[in-house]
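ok trying this again, last paste got cut off
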Amino acid sequence: MQAKHAIATYKETADMMSRSDIPMLFRQMRTGDAAEIHAIETRIFPFPWSEAGFVNSVTWGYNCQVMCEENSGRIAGYFILMTSIDEAHLMTIGLRANLHGMGYGRMLLDRVILTAREHGMVSLLLEVRPSNTGPLEMYRKYGFSQIGIRKNYYVDVDNTREDAIVMRLTL
C-alpha cells in the first residue's frame, strides 16, 4: 500500500518559513520571469532549460508557477506541470541553491501536489537523476514509487549520460 503524504498545514508551512525568515508566496509564472528563472536553472542544473522553453510553457498553457519572496518579489523557486486527462507530469522544478535544505523544496512540492489535485489529476509523474539524492529522497518520503528507468535520459557536461528514475505518486 502506497503512503499518501499529507500536504503541509498552514502551521507547518509557517514553521518552515520562520526557520529562514523569508516568507514566500506563489503566483502564476509570466513570460517576463523567464530570464530570472533561467538564471536559477543555470546554477542548479548542468543542462538548463532555455529562456524560450519557459516562455513557451507559459504561452502553451502549462501550469507554470513561481514561489517568490513576499517582501522583495524575488523568485525563489518554480515548477512547470503538464496535465493530460487525469495524469500530471512535473516537467521541471527548481529552487535557488541558497535555499536548499531549509524546507522550501517541500513547500514547492506541496504546491505541485495541491495544484495537480485541484485540477482533478489522479497521479503525478516525474523523472529524477539517481545522482540527485536530496530530491530523490524527498520524493520517496512523499510516497512516490519508482515505475521505470529512462536509459541515458540526461546528458552531463562531459557528454556522458545518466539514466532517469521515473516516479509516480497516486493522488
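PB: full thing came through this time. The beta strands are 24-28, 63-69, 75-84, 87-95, 123-128, 145-155, 161-170.
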